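To: structure subgroup
Subject: Chain for Friday's discussion

All,

I'm putting the inputs and outputs inline so they're searchable in the archive.
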Amino acid sequence: MLLSAQNISHAFGADDLFSELTVRLEEKERVGLVGPNGVGKTTLLLILAGLFEPDEGEIHRQKEMSLGYLRQEAVLTFAGQENSIYEEMLTVFAELVAYETEMRQMEARMTAGEMGDSLFQRYGEVQEIYETAGGYDYQVAIKQVLEGLGFAQESWNTPLNHLSGGQKTRVLLGRLLLEKPDLLILDEPTNHLDAAAVAWLEKTLQKWPGTLLIVSHDRYFLDRVANRIWSMTAERIKVYKGNYTTFVRQRQLTYERELKLFTAEKERLTKELEFVRKHIAGGKTDIAKGKLKRLTRDIVLLEEVGVLGREGKSWSEIGGRVRTFSANEAARRLGDLRPPDNRPPRLNIRLQSEEESEFLVLRTQRLQIGYPDAMLFKTEKLRLERRDCVAILGGNGSGKSTMLKTLLGEIDPLRGEITYGDNLKIGYFAQAHEQLDPEKKVIEEVLTRYPVGEQKARQHLAAYLFRGHDVFKSVADLSGGERGRLALALLALEGANLLLLDEPTNHLDIPAQEVLQETLERFDGTMLLVSHDRYLVSQLATQIWEIDGEEMHVFEGTYGEFMGEETETGDTAGRGEKVALEPTMPLSDGPLDLSWVQDLAEPIFIDDGAEEDDDELLFASEEMNMVEPSVVQRGRGRGNREEVRIQAYLDKLYEELATAEAAGDTEEMAWLEGEIDEAQMTLDDLGA
């Protein structure tokens, strides 16, 4: 065990941030810490790193353990230092540089004619130490790290005090990666990285020799890097094996199982109460009193530890002395029990189109996007059908947001034309939320678009977590996350059937991102999506429009296919490296039996029969009301068949593990945990 924390608590003033949390980190674990904003994730990292002291509890760290910590912002990390970027990287190798300097000095003495035995002996000793410690490799390592994190070589001599806060954070990250501490703690490491740097960091951390503890809102990043997820609330941290996607599935399975057990237990206790009342009235007092005593204990346990907390345990293990309820009190307490809901406050987003658009939503011909003095990119043909979700990808400044504004009609194309289908109503979510009026209050923004009275407006805003006096906040005083929630609340009022979404998950924590994703998956219209949230793109996109230099290219398929993940036939679509279908490690001693999931439902994809050259006919004015194909339309986010099967097998294993835990079958639990680890490694290999 590398690090453990027992019953740690922390408060700000009179308010508890979290209490009695217990965690442990094993060597070589890669842990993703997730939870809603404000739950105390950063504070917990600071405590585990030894930079804060908890109000209560104990921290145990392995002796002589080295630890590195990346704050969200590293502005103060280099205060007062005059190092350049490269010189700061060299500080990691100060001992090697000293040996190197000594070797150069001795070489100069030998060149000058000095030939003593002691000189040759010392030179040999230093050279061996230098070579063994990586003296001939460290400059290459520095080059790889700086280039990987997006520092061009011509910037390496820039003094640290000339860098922005984001650049300083990247420098600190680079230094930590070169130091290779036993435990590396990273707080939002992707915040100041472009797409290429994030991809490089993912590959670097996948091969990390030590232990990682990472807080990140980037779910795709956690999917690629983490092999454990800590899900944090103010009362507990629950540990899940596997990456982020596995965590989401297992969390849902656990919740459904807990709800099922709770419902069954409440029904059982209700019948017990009926028996008690009947037999007390019928004169069988002793039997009824005995049952009422047990009923009391069961109700108290459900109140205090929940249905999962009491599962498989006796009263003596988790209970104490308790006064037996009367039948009426038992009925009241039983009625007050509420179904489990361990989830944080959730957005209650509903996006629904008022009217269905035509099947053919829009098409373009020979389009050029940009401004009169600056053409950004051009594209030959674009075609969008109802229920499509297009992800527009490209570097910063490539023209993604400009494309959305052009489709919206706010900016004219430099050349070409855009033809829209009938019955189209467009809703727009702007990245900078410029559609919001900073002079208005939150509720005024809603009433301007939805004049139905204050009560209904407040009900609508409550679904987006604006409650009480929050509705009277000035828009100018809202945080980035609050502005995003308000923009979504307004978008929901429009009833649009074509959504143009520009970075909709910016400033949202992971629970809010999950809700938005679920909402967009259910949306019955069409979407064009600009987002750095690769997890959202991977779950929603049915085609990719990529801006590459001055050209936009269309890729028909999912984000995974676009990035080069293998298809069912073994072909590699897209532009990425080929990924082997065969797992690199066996799932068990024998072949994995997946026969029970052979009939998993697969999305159905249609061919509307139109060839590329038929576009003009399809878009001719008399053909705009073409008949929609009657078969099922393409789905949002098609999964790799092998990954789906193995994930289904994992879900089955977790269900069996829960049953074994309830029965206290330690032998079965050990076997199942081994199977889970092996299956997860295979799933990680397929997604690598």
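Points worth raising on Friday:
The chain has a mean pLDDT of 81.
Residues 76 and 240 are 35 Å apart (CA to CA).

D.
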